[in-house]
Amino acid sequence: MTQILPKQIIRAIDEFAKLPSIGPKTAERLTMYLVRFGDPTKLGDTLADLREGLRFCAQCHSFSTTELCDLCQDPSRDASLIAVVAQPLDIVAVERTGSFHGLYHVLHGVLSPIDGIGPSQLKIDTLLTRIHATDPTEIILATNATVEGETTAMYIAKQLNQHAVRVSRLAQGMPVGADVEYADQVTLARALAGRTEIAV
């Protein structure tokens, strides 16, 4: 059988296609861009060095190059507030809002019995140890509004019953730009329950 493309291009397409959210067509476009306009050597060197010196922060479990990440070392952060997130990228999303100035705790996943992920596979024990040692005033459970995210939040909330700490959950409801008529029942119900007063 005749090979349509050179083997190195096919290999690159195959590797791109292994990445999350990258389908075959996108993998082909990325590869062709690199062949025609990009700098594959620079990309290759960057990827080769990607894990160089990386480690997990000893306190929050996000990525770091030192024992404690920059956020955990920042004295201007409010150590009495801890936002619990599923993944390190969730920290990036929250930080982009510019509205949260506390610290974080990364679970590295959510409870998912179907996938064999239980409490022991997540950083829940270290969260409880951290809360006991630092005595924060509030824990914000910032996991996704999925079945797994909700289950994880409820599990952690129950574990924190014995601690004198306020446990809160991210508000959920209508996103900006959404039409009420197209909202699902759960989203609309949560939006009604979490409604706020308008100050005129």
Would you kindly provide a written description of the structure presented here, covering whatever features stand out?
The chain is of the alpha/beta class and 200 residues long. It has three domains: 7-48, Orthogonal Bundle (Helicase, Ruva Protein, domain 3), CATH 1.10.8.420; 78-168, 3-Layer(aba) Sandwich (Dna Topoisomerase Vi A Subunit, Chain: A, domain 2), CATH 3.40.1360; 170-200, no CATH class. The chain contains eight helices and six strands, in the order H-H-H-E-E-H-E-H-E-H-E-H-E-H. It has helices spanning 7-17, 24-36, 40-48, 70-73, 88-97, 124-134, 147-159, 185-193; strands at 55-56, 63-64, 78-85, 102-106, 138-141, 166-169. It has a four-stranded parallel beta sheet. A two-stranded antiparallel sheet has the order 1-2. The termini are far apart. The mean pLDDT is 90.
Q: Can you list the strand order of the major beta sheet? A: 4-3-5-6
CATH architecture level-2 label of the largest domain: 3-Layer(aba) Sandwich
Q: Which structural class matches the secondary elements?
A: alpha/beta
Strand content: 5-15%
- Major β-sheet annotation: 4 strands, parallel
Provide the CATH top-level class of the largest domain.
Answer: Alpha Beta
User: Portion of residues in helices?
Assistant: 40-55%
Instruction: Please state the overall shape, judged from the principal axes of the Cα atoms.
Output: globular
- How large, in whole angstroms, is the Cα Rg? 22 Å
Extended strand count = 6
Give the topology string: H per helix, E per strand.
HHHEEHEHEHEHEH
User: Quaternary arrangement of the chains shown?
Assistant: single chain
Write down the CATH topology of the largest domain. Dna Topoisomerase Vi A Subunit, Chain: A, domain 2
Summed up, the domain count is: 3
Mean pLDDT: 90
Number of helices: 8
